[in-house]
Description:
Layout: E1 6-13, H1 17-27, E2 49-57, E3 59-62, E4 70-73, E5 79-85, E6 92-98, E7 105-109
Antiparallel strand pairs: 1-2, 2-5, 3-4, 5-6, 6-7
Amino acid sequence: xxxxxxxxxxxxxxxxxxxxxxxxxxxxxxxxxxxxxxxxxxxxxxxxxxxxxxxxxxxxxxxxxxxxxxxxxxxxxxxxxxxxxxxxxxxxxxxxxxxxxxxxxxxxxxx
Length: 111
């Protein structure tokens, strides 16, 4: 029997100070690609919701689409996926994912 990796996904509003500061830590200057509110009480703040997935404990991750069946996750405490998206339309403004083999970060933007 193998030990399975565990992940936690958390969320923060981009209108909060925590959401904005954590997003700028994760995305750096790419956060400027996220649209801002132009009217109302949130004028000048970023739109959307930040979500991130963090590795809680290492272990085996089974993948149905992988020919080898999966991989071993050893990056305990790392954020492996994050995205900022619109809550209502689910349009993803910016996202990133770390590859498992070389920890290369892949960043995607909305058109």
